[in-house]
């Protein structure tokens, strides 16, 4: 048994980021064609496109501001003209900002997190789920965070955005389930990426000492979970919030 995505078309938002790049490579290795969304890093998107095509897959790089509905709809048209209909959407993009306390956090940061966590997913759903409904098949996978369960100091804007995202995905799972579309979330912990490898910062004992598996997860482990939820191996899983963080947070029944 293996994860098989041959012939599937996948859109990954924020595909040029640390986690997004590994997701794109991994899903391509499973056989999928990849729509590489980027916001500003055109060069990285072009390089990733070459990588995906070298694996024998089709790829397209598309620029969009996923917090704007008109941009998401334009992106859909560009993808449709090249790859065709999207079977799997991975909502990975998020606005970066400086974390601080609630009393000091600018209101604009709460707005940016709502836009990039909640509205991005709304716009992606409106753009891509109608074709999935018609096909009677589809996957929407949102990248959430363990922070949504931790609620630590200085996390307020990020946590608020991701908890809003969680509510949206659970409702959406119920609304589109009859069309055999699954809607799930992955919640990474503090994940090791190429940035850590370049800076020799993979190890952080203060964090890892509280993780049952006593280590940080890797970008590849997050991508593996995405591949599973994208595949038919997860065909009867929907509405899930799946922590991929070594047990650092554990949803209760």
Keywords:
253 residues, alpha/beta, Rossmann fold, globular
Give the topology:
Blueprint: E1 9-12, H1 18-29, E2 33-38, H2 42-54, E3 59-63, H3 69-80, E4 88-91, H4 107-135, E5 138-143, H5 147-150, H6 156-176, E6 181-188, H7 194-199, H8 205-208, H9 219-230, E7 241-244
Parallel strand pairs: 1-2, 1-4, 2-3, 4-5, 5-6, 6-7
Helix pairs in contact: 1-9, 3-4, 4-6
Give an account of the 3D structure.
With 253 residues, the protein is of the alpha/beta class. The chain has a single domain, classed as NAD(P)-binding Rossmann-like Domain (Rossmann fold), CATH 3.40.50. The protein contains nine helices and seven strands. The protein has a seven-stranded parallel beta sheet with strand order 3-2-1-4-5-6-7, sandwiched between helices. The longest helix has 29 residues, at 107-135. It is globular.
Quick structural overview:
With 253 residues, this protein is α/β, with parallel strands linked by helices. It has helices at 18-29, 42-54, 69-80, 107-135, 147-150, 156-176, 194-199, 205-208, 219-230; strands at 9-12, 33-38, 59-63, 88-91, 138-143, 181-188, 241-244. The chain has a single domain, classed as NAD(P)-binding Rossmann-like Domain (Rossmann fold, 3-Layer(aba) Sandwich).
């Amino acid at each position: 048994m293996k994860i098989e995505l041959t012939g599937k078309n996948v859109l990954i938002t924020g595909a040029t980021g640390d986690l997004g790049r590994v997701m794109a490579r991994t899903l391509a290795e499973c056989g999928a064609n990849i729509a590489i969304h980027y916001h500003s890093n055109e060069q990285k998107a072009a390089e990733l496109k070459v990588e995906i095509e070298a694996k024998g897959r089709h790829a397209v790089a598309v620029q969009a501001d996923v917090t704007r509905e008109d941009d998401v709809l334009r992106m859909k048209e560009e993808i449709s003209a090249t790859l065709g209909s999207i079977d799997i959407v991975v909502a990975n993009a998020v606005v970066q900002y400086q974390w601080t306390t609630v009393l000091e956090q600018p209101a604009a940061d709460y707005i940016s997190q709502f836009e990039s966590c909640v509205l991005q997913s709304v716009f992606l759903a409106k753009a891509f789920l109608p074709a999935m409904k018609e096909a009677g098949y589809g996957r929407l996978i949102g990248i959430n965070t363990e922070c949504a369960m931790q609620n630590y100091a200085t996390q307020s804007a990020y946590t608020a955005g991701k908890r809003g995202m969680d509510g949206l995905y659970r409702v959406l799972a119920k609304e589109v389930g009859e069309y055999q579309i699954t809607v799930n979330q992955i919640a990474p912990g503090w994940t090791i990426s190429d940035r850590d490898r370049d800076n020799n910062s993979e190890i952080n004992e203060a964090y890892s000492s509280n993780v049952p598996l006593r280590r940080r997860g890797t970008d590849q482990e997050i991508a593996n979970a995405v591949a599973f939820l994208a595949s038919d191996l997860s065909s009867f899983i929907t509405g899930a919030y799946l922590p991929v963080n070594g047990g650092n947070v554990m949803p209760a029944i």
